[in-house]
C-alpha cells in the first residue's frame, strides 16, 4: 500500500533512534542515560494513593467529558490565576493527553496546509515533525548569541500565511528561559498582526523562581492572542499518565475539542485524576522536586565550566543542558554514536533540533545526580582526548 508522503519523508523519533543504539538499555549497566528527560523518582504518595482509589472504583476506567474533568479544570485555572497573578477560568482549560497532543491540536485548529508558524531555533523536534507532516510550514527564527529569541527579529518573518508564533520556555533543548518582558514583546507583536502566540510552558515549574513566568494572564483580553500549553508529566512525575492542557479562549477551545474528540475522545481519566491530586495536595512536594532539579543544574553548570574534553556548555535551564562538541570535522550524529558505543553515554544529537548540523548535543540534566555529573565529566574528558587525537591523525594522513 502507499503511505502519506509527508509522513514517509519525516524523520523517525529522535528518542527511539537514540535508544536503538543501546537496545536493550538495561543490557548496559554502565550506561549514563541522558537522552529522554523524565523524572527518575515516583509521583508524590498522595497522588499514588488517590489514583489507586480511583482505579478500584466503578468509574475508574470510564470516559470523561471531552474537555476534561471539571474539578481538574477548576483546580488548574485556580492555580494559574494564583501563580500568574491573573485571571484564568475553567472554560479556558482543555485537558489533553500530554502537551505534545496539546500542541498538535492547537496547530491543527489554527493553521492548514500551506500556512506558516514561526518557530525559534533550536526547535522542539516533535513540533517541527508535526507541522511538516500536516503540511504547515515552520519558519525558523534564529536567536541571538545568548540563544534568546527576540520579537524584533520575528516581525520580518510574518507573512499573510503566518498563523502563530511558537515559544518554548524554558526551552527544549536549550533550557533557555525567555523573561516576562520578552514574552510580552512577542504577545504585542502577535496582537498587532492578529496571529496567535503559542507558549509551551511544560517546564514552568523548573525556572528556579516562584515569580510569574509572564504577566499575560493579567490582561483581561489575553485570550485574544495567547494560547498557553502545559504538561503535568515533569511537574508531577507522571509522564506515562499522558495528561497536559491547552489554556486558551473558549472559542479556540471549542475547535480544539472537535479535534480531541476525533483523536482521543478525552485524556485518560486516571491521568486527569492524578493531575488533580497533584495540583491540590502535592504543592509542597512539587516545590521540593523543583529545588532538587535546580541543584542538579547548578552541579552540572559548575562541572562544565572547565570545558571537559573541549565540550562547551552554551546554556542550561529547565531539564536540559545544550553543549557544543569540539569535533568540528565530524558529523554530530557520529559523535553521539561514539559517545554511547565507546563511552556508555547516551545523548540526543543537536541535529534533531536544528535544520543543519551546528555541532550541538542535548543533555537531560534532570537525569544526573552529583556522582553522575562527575562520571559524565570524566567520560567527556576521555572522549575529547581519544576522539580528538584520532581526528588529528586522520587530518594528518589526509594532508
What does this structure look like?
The protein is α/β, with parallel strands linked by helices. The protein has two domains: 5-42 and 285-398, Alpha-Beta Complex (Aspartate Aminotransferase, domain 1), CATH 3.90.1150; 45-282, Type I PLP-dependent aspartate aminotransferase-like (Major domain) (Aspartate Aminotransferase, domain 2, 3-Layer(aba) Sandwich). The strands form three sheets. The chain has a seven-stranded mixed beta sheet, sandwiched between helices. It has a four-stranded antiparallel beta sheet with strand order 9-10-13-12. It is built from 14 helices and 13 strands. The chain has helices at residues 5-8, 14-19, 45-56, 70-83, 99-110, 125-133, 151-154, 180-192, 233-236, 250-263, 269-281, 283-304, 332-343, 370-398, and strands at 32-33, 93-96, 116-120, 137-141, 162-168, 196-200, 226-231, 244-247, 312-317, 320-324, 345-346, 348-349, 360-364. The protein is globular, with a radius of gyration of 21 Å. 42% of the residues lie in helices and 15% in strands. 45% of the residues are buried.
Amino acid at each position: 500500500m502507499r503511505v502519506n508522503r509527508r509522513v514517509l519523508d519525516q524523520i523517525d523519533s529522535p528518542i527511539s533512534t537514540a535508544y536503538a543504539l543501546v537496545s536493550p538499555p538495561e543490557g548496559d549497566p554502565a550506561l549514563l542515560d541522558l537522552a529522554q528527560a523524565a523524572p527518575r523518582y515516583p509521583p508524590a504518595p498522595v497522588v499514588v494513593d488517590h489514583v489507586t482509589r480511583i482505579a478500584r472504583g466503578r468509574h475508574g476506567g470510564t470516559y470523561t467529558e471531552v474537555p476534561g474533568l471539571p474539578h481538574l479544570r477548576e483546580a488548574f485555572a485556580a492555580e494559574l490565576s494564583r501563580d500568574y497573578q491573573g485571571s484564568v477560568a475553567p472554560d479556558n482549560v482543555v485537558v489533553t493527553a500530554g502537551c505534545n497532543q496539546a500542541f498538535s491540536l492547537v496547530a491543527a485548529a489554527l493553521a492548514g496546509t500551506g500556512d506558516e508558524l514561526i518557530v525559534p531555533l533550536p526547535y522542539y523536534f516533535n513540533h517541527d515533525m508535526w507541522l511538516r507532516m500536516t503540511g504547515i510550514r515552520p519558519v525558523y527564527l534564529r536567536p541571538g548569541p545568548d540563544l534568546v529569541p527576540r520579537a524584533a527579529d520575528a516581525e520580518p518573518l510574518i507573512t499573510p500565511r503566518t498563523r502563530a508564533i511558537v515559544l518554548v520556555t524554558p526551552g527544549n533543548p536549550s533550557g533557555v528561559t525567555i523573561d516576562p518582558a520578552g514574552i510580552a514583546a512577542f504577545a504585542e507583536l502577535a496582537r498587532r498582526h492578529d496571529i496567535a502566540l503559542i507558549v509551551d510552558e511544560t517546564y514552568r515549574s523548573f525556572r528556579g523562581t516562584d515569580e510569574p513566568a509572564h504577566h499575560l494572564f493579567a490582561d483581561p483580553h489575553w485570550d485574544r492572542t495567547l494560547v498557553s500549553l502545559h504538561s503535568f508529566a515533569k511537574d508531577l512525575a507522571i509522564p506515562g499518565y499522558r495528561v497536559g492542557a491547552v489554556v486558551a479562549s473558549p472559542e479556540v477551545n471549542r475547535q480544539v475539542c472537535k479535534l480531541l474528540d476525533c483523536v482521543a475522545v478525552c485524556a485518560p481519566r486516571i491521568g486527569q485524576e492524578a493531575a488533580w491530586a497533584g495540583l491540590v495536595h502535592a504543592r509542597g512536594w512539587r516545590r521540593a522536586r523543583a529545588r532538587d532539579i535546580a541543584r542538579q543544574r547548578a552541579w552540572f553548570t559548575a562541572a562544565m565550566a572547565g570545558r571537559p574534553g573541549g565540550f562547551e556548555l552554551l546554556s542550561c535551564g529547565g531539564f536540559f543542558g545544550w553543549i557544543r562538541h569540539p569535533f568540528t570535522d565530524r558529523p554530530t550524529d557520529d559523535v553521539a554514536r561514539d559517545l554511547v558505543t565507546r563511552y556508555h553515554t547516551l545523548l540526543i544529537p543537536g541535529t534533531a533540533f536544528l535544520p543543519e548540523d551546528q555541532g550541538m548535543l542535548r543533555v537531560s540534566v534532570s537525569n544526573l545526580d552529583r556522582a553522575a555529573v562527575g562520571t559524565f565529566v570524566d567520560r567527556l574528558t576521555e572522549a575529547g582526548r581519544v576522539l580528538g587525537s584520532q581526528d588529528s591523525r586522520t587530518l594528518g594522513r589526509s594532508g
